[in-house]
Amino acid sequence: MKTSVNVCGIEFKNPLIAASGTFGFGREYQDFYDVNIWGGFCTKGLTYEKRLGNPTPRIAETPMGSLNSVGLQNPGFEDFVKYELPYLKTLDTVVIVNIAGNMVEDYCRLAEAVSDCDIDMVELNISCPNVKEGGMAFGTRPESIKNVVGSVRKYCKKPLIVKLSPNVEDITQNAKAAEDYGADAISLINTVSGMAVDIYTRQPILANTIGGLSGPAIKPIALKMVWQVYNTVKIPIIGMGGISSAQDILEFMLCGARAVQVGTYNFMDPYAPVTLLDGLTKLMADCKIQDVNTIVGDLKAR
Ligand SMILES: Cc1cc2nc3c(=O)[nH]c(=O)nc-3n(C[C@H](O)[C@H](O)[C@H](O)COP(=O)(O)O)c2cc1C
User: Fold this and answer.
1) Catalytic residue among 128, 156, 255, 287
2) Dihedral (CA of 261, 257, 92, 73) sign
3) Closest residue by CA, ligand 1 atom 2
4) Which of 137, 175, 232, 234 counts the highest number of beta carbons within 10 A?
C-alpha cells in the first residue's frame, strides 16, 4: 500500500503534515511519539523580529472547534536559527517554515533569510495585516496577493507554498493570483473569522475580541474551498481545516488535496498522527485503495 506523496518535487512519506501554530517548532510532542512519523511538519508562524503575541485570553473552546487569537507569538529569526533550527535539522521529516510579516518588505527579508537555512519548504501566511494598507490583510484581495507573492518569489529559493485565508469574497481568484505570481503550491484554509461571548462578564471571551475558528466545525468550508481551488489552478494543493479522522483525509484528497495538514486535532488527541495513520491504512484497505495518490481530485460529478 502506497501512502507517500510528492509535492513540488519533495517526497513526503505520508500525506500528513502538522499544521502551523499547533505544533510549535516540533519539540513539544517528542515525549509522546517519534515526531518523524509525520510526512512533514510546519513551524509556528515566524516573523523576522520576535513577537510576544496578543494579550490573554487568546484561546476559547467552541462546539466542534476552537477560537484563537494568538497573534503570531514567536521567537523571531535570530533565535529560530540559534535554538530551533539545530533541532529541526535532526528530523527525518519534511520541514516547512511558515513565515509572516506586517509589510511586503518583512516577508521578503524573512523569505530570503529562511531560504538560506537547511529547511525544505516555505509556507507564506498572507492572512496578516498590511500596515501600509491600513491593516487590511494581504491575503484578502487578488491585487495584494499578486504584490506579496510576486515580491517574495524573487527572494525565496525554496519551494513556496502560499497559504490562503477563507475570509474572502472569491477564493479561486486569490488562488489564481498566487499561482500566476510564483506560488509552487497552495495550502488552505487558514482559520475562519469568529467570536465568542461570556454572558456573565458580558464581554468577548478573547482579549482581542475576534479570533480564528478552527477544528471540525470548519471542515465543510475547507472541503468546498479545496475543491474550488483544485478546479482553478494546476499547482499542488495542501488541504486543511478540521481534519480529525482517516475519512477526513480521504475526503480532502478526493476534493483535490495532494497532502493535508492537521491542526486543532493535535489538541484533541496528542497522538494525532499515530491514530490518523493507523486509521488511514485500514481505511485504504477497506476502500481497496492501493496508492493514496490515485484518489487526488477523483471526486465524481453528481
Ligand atoms: C492555536 C493556533 C495557532 C495557529 N497559528 C498559525 C500560524 O502561526 N500561522 C498559520 O499560517 N496558521 C496558523 N494557524 C492555523 C492552522 O495552521 C490551520 O490553518 C487552521 O487551524 C485550520 O486547520 P485545523 O482545523 O486542522 O486546525 C493556527 C491555528 C491554531 C488553532
Assistant:
1) 128
2) negative
3) 21
4) 175
Contacts of 81 (CB under 8 A, 6+ apart): 117
Phi, psi of 272 (to 5 degrees): -45, -55
Q: Which three cell numbers stand for residue 225?
A: 474551498
Phi, psi for residue 130 in degrees, rounded to 5: -100, 100
Q: Per-residue pLDDT tens for 70-108?
A: 999 999 999 999 999 999 999 999 999 999 998 999 999
Cell numbers found for residue 137: 490583510
In this model, does residue 132 exceed pLDDT 80? no
Could you tell me the distance, in angstroms and rounded to a whole number, from the CA of residue 134 to the centre of ligand 1?
24
pTM: 0.97
Q: What share of the chain is helix, strand, coil (3-state, %, to 5)?
A: 35, 25, 40
Domain positions in the chain: 5-54+70-194+213-295
Q: How far is CA 8 from the centre of its chain?
A: 16
Using the Cα atoms of residue 276, residue 25, residue 53 and residue 182 in order, give the sign of their dihedral: negative
Domain made up of 5-54+70-194+213-295: CATH architecture: Alpha-Beta Barrel (3.20)
Q: What does the alpha-carbon distance between residue 208 and residue 195 come to, in Å, rounded to a whole number?
A: 10
Q: Ligand 1: which of 52, 97, 107, 191 to mutate, judged by most atoms within 8 Å of the beta carbon?
A: 191
Q: What is the pLDDT of residues 133-189, one digit of tens each?
A: 766 677 889 999 999 999 999 999 999 999 999 999 999 999 999 999 999 999 999
Question: Are 70 and 85 in contact, with CB atoms under 8 Å apart?
Answer: no
Question: Does 128 qualify as catalytic in the annotation?
Answer: yes
